[in-house]
Amino acid sequence: MTELSSNAMTASSVSREQRNASRDHRGSWIPTPGMIATRIMELRRRRGLMAALIAVNIGIPTIFLAIRLIAHVVAPKSYGPAGGYDIFTNLVAGVMYVFGFIVAATLGCTAGSVDLSEGMFRHLVITGRSRVALYFARIPAGLAIIVPMVAVGFTIVCAVCVFAAPAKLSYQGVTVPSGLSATGFQSWAVHHPKEAVCGLPYRSRNGIPCFMDQKGKVVVPPGSSGFKHVSPATLKADAIKVAKQNYTAYTHIFLYPSNLLMVKAGLWIELEAIIGFIVGLGLASLIGQRTVSVVLMIVLEIVLTPIFSRAPIQHLINFQRGLVGLATAHLEPGGLPMAFGGGGGPGGGVSIVPETTTVAVCVIVAWLVGWTALGAWRMATRDT
Amino acid sequence: MNVAMLDHTPSSNTPDFQWAVETHGLTKRFGDNVAVNDVELLVPRGCAFGYLGPNGAGKTSLIRVLLGLTHADAGTMSLLGYSVPHHRDLALARVGAIVDEPRFHGHLTGRQNLQILAAARESAARGRIEASLERVGLAHRADDRVSKYSMGMRQRLGVAACLLGDPQLLILDEPMNGLDPAGMHEMRDMILSLVAEGRTVMLSSHLLDEVERTCDAVAIVDKGKIIRQGPIAELLTGATMEVQVECSSPEEARTILLSTTFGAQVETDASGLTIHLAPGTGRDAIAEINRLLVQSGLDVYRLQEMQVSLESWFLDVTSRLGESA
To answer: How many folded domains does chain B comprise?
Structure first.
C-alpha cells in the first residue's frame, strides 16, 4: 500500500500551511470582513425578504404620510396637516416600534436558519472555519441591513412630521400661529376671545354656545343671547381658561417633534430592531427552522408582551420584568404614547410594571447575550 | 491488505506524511444503530481511494465524522496528519469535500455561492474562484442562479467549491449520483486529473464499476465496519479465479474436474462449464485443466480465464461474510 503514498507534501509545505492557517485565524471566533460582506450579500439578494422588509419599514409609514399629504393638499379644511407632533409620536410608538421588531426578527430568523435549510452549512463547516465565527458573521451582516433600513423609514417620518407640520393652526375655522408658548397662546386667546371660546376643541364649562363656520366666522345658534350679556372681561377670562385647557392639545397636534425627541425615539426603535434581529437569530439557530421561529417572535411581540403589560401581576411580577418587550418599553422616550406599559407622558419613565432603568437595561442585555450564546452554542454543536 | 498488518503508530501532534486519512477505532452511534463501527482506515496520499459499501453501510456517516459535521463516540482520527478535531482548522484548511447531494443557496449564482465559501477560507481562495469554475466547466453558467442548475451542474459546483482551498485531500460522497454517462465520464476524468496533480481523492460509492475504473485502492464497508482494504490489484489477487470451458461433454468434464485436487467448484450450463478455482491458484492450473480434459478424450473448443471484477469480488466477499454470520 505504501507505494501509493504521495510525496507531494513536504515538511516545509506543512509548516507553510500551518503559518497560513494561523494567519487567517480560521479557528478564531472573530469573523473576517469578507465573511461579513458575503453574508450581507446573501441576505440582500433575497428579493422577497428585502421587499417585505422595505415595504413594512419604509413603505407603510411612507404611504400613510403620502396619503395624508395629498389629502391635506386637496382638502386642507377637511384633512389636517400630514406631519406634526401627534403623527410622529403615534407612528413611532404605534407602527415603527412593533413592525420594526417583527421585520428585524424575520431577518434574524432567516439569517439564523437558511444555511441549514439550504444545505450551505456543511460547505461552510468543511472550510475549517470556526462555527462560532460563522454564527457571529451573521450579526453585523444582519444589523448592516436592518439598522439603515429602520433609519431610512424613521428619517422619512421625521422629515414629513417636521416639514409638513402646520405653520399655523387652522382647526374648525380657527387660525392660530404655531409654536406659541403657554403664555403666548393665552395672549393670542385674549386678543381673539370669540375665536378661542367658540373654535377651540376643549371649552370652559361656562362657555357660550357658539361655533365657527367654514369661513372662519363666529356663529351663535338662533335663540341664544350669544355675547350680548357677556362682559369683555368675562369673555377674556373665558378665553384664557379655554386656552389653558387646550394648550396641551395645541402642543401635541400642531407642533413638530423636538430634535431631542427625534434622536431619542430613533435610538429607541433602533434598539428594538436590534433586539428583534439578535433574538430572532439566536432562536432560529437554536431551532434550525425559520417559520416556527418567526411565529414565536410574533407571538412574543404582539401577544405575550401586550398581555403582560396591561397590569402588574403580583405573583408574576419578576416574569413580567423579564420580558424584553416590557424592558424596552420602559426605556421609551418621554413624550411618546405609552407602548406596552412603558414610556409615555412628557416626563417619560412611566411604567405599569414597576422596575428601575438599571433592571430594564440588564434584562435587555441578558436577552441579547443569552440568545447570542444559545445560538452560537447550537451552531457549534449541531450535527449536520 | 489487512489493516492489522500495518505497523503504524499515529501521532496526535506532528503531521504524518504518509496517510491522508487515518482512523483508529472510530465509532459513531445513532441510538442503538452503530453507523461507524470501530473503523481502522488508512488512506494513502496521492491516490484515488474508494470507500465502498451498500446503501446504509455507514459511508456518509464516516465522512461526516471525519469532517467534523458530527462528533465521534470513540476512536481517533487524523486528516493529512493533523489530529481531528484537535487541529480541525489546520486539517480542513487543505481538505475539500462534498457530503451527500451538494446544495447551495438557490437564489445566488454559482459564483456568489463560491464567494461565500471562499470568504470562509484563506484570502487566496477568492482568487481561485474563476479557475475552479473553469476547471469544472461551469464558467459559462457561473452567473446563473443555482436554482436553475441541473443535478450534474450542482455536483460540478460542489467540486469547484472543494477546489477553492487548493486541497491536498478531496472527500467526495457519491460524486456520480445524478450524473448521466457523459457526466460520469467527466467526473472520472476530473478525479484522475486531481490525483495526477498529487492530490488524494477519497470517494465513497456503491457503484463498484465506477470505483474500479477510478480508484487505486479501496476499503469495503458493511454495517459500519471495514471488512477489507488495500490496493484493488492486491485485493483481487486474493479472489477466486474463474475459468470458462467449452467442450464436447460438459457433464463428463465436470465429473473429471471434481475428482481432481484443485478444490474447484464447477457449474455446468448450456454453453459449457464455469470453474471457480480457490484464491491463490496459479495460472498453471488452467493448463492442467486443459491437459486433463484432452487426456480424457474430450474435445476442448474454448478455455478462457475470466477477469475478476471488483463487483464479483465484492459480492464474493460479502456473501462469504453472510454465510459465516
So the answer is: 2
The model's pTM is: 0.78
Residues of B in contact with A27 (CB under 8 A): 88-89
- Is residue B283 domain-shared with residue B190, that is, in the same domain? no
Nearest beta carbon to residue B90 from set A18, A114, A119: A18
For residue B216, the one-letter residue type is D
Residues A158, A114: Cα–Cα separation, whole Å:
35
In this complex, the residue of A6, A21, A45 whose CB is nearest that of residue B90 is A21
Closest CA to B141 of B126, B156, B119, B159: B156
Cross-chain CB nearest to B217 (options A1, A23, A384): A1
Same domain for B202 and B292: no
CA dihedral B274, B278, B283, B288 (to 10 degrees): -70
- Cβ separation of B96 and A126 shorter than 8 Å? yes
A47 chain-B contacts, CB cut-off 8 A: 107
Cβ of B104 and A119 within 8 Å?
yes
Please give the biggest Cα pair distance in chain B. 78
Same domain, yes or no: B287 and B185: no
- Residue A2 CA, distance from chain mean position: 67
For A28, nearest residue in chain B (alpha carbons)? B89
Cell 407632533 sits on residue: A85
- Residue (of B64, B128, B119, B123) closest to B97 by Cα position: B64
Residue of A nearest to B157 (CA): A123
Shared domain check, B299 and B260: yes
CA A127 to chain B, closest CA, distance in angstroms equals 6
Contact A336, A269 (CB under 8 A): no
A-chain residue closest to B88, CA distance: A128
Question: Are A160 and A65 spatial neighbours (Cβ–Cβ below 8 Å)?
Answer: yes
Show the domain range for B285.
240-307
- Does residue B183 form part of some domain? yes
Domain presence at residue B325: no
**For residue B105, what is the nearest residue in chain A, using CA coordinates?**
A118
Domain boundaries, chain A: 24-165+257-310, 168-253
Tell me whether residues A42 and B116 touch, CB distance under 8 A. yes
C-alpha cell at A318: 419578576
Same domain, B177 and B216: yes
Residues making up chain A, counted from first to last = 384
Contacting residues of B for A114, CB less than 8 Å apart: 105
B121: nearest CB among A9, A118, A127: A127
Residues B71 and B128 in one domain: yes
B35 assigned to some structural domain: yes
* Cβ <8 Å between A127 and B94: no
Residues B139 and B257 in one domain: no
Specify whether B178 is located in the same domain as B274: no
pLDDT tens per residue across all 384 residues of chain A:
333 333 334 444 545 555 555 566 788 899 999 999 999 999 999 999 999 999 999 999 999 999 999 998 898 878 878 888 888 888 888 889 888 999 999 999 999 999 999 999 999 999 999 999 999 999 999 999 999 999 999 999 999 988 887 777 666 667 788 778 889 989 998 998 888 888 887 665 556 778 777 777 888 877 777 777 788 888 888 888 888 888 887 776 656 788 888 999 999 999 999 999 999 999 999 999 999 999 999 999 889 988 888 788 888 888 988 999 989 988 888 778 766 555 544 444 556 778 888 999 999 999 999 999 999 999 999 988
Among B235, B264, B297, which residue terminates a domain? B235
Domain containing residue B116: CATH number: 3.40.50.300
Q: Report yes or no on B170 lying in a domain.
A: yes
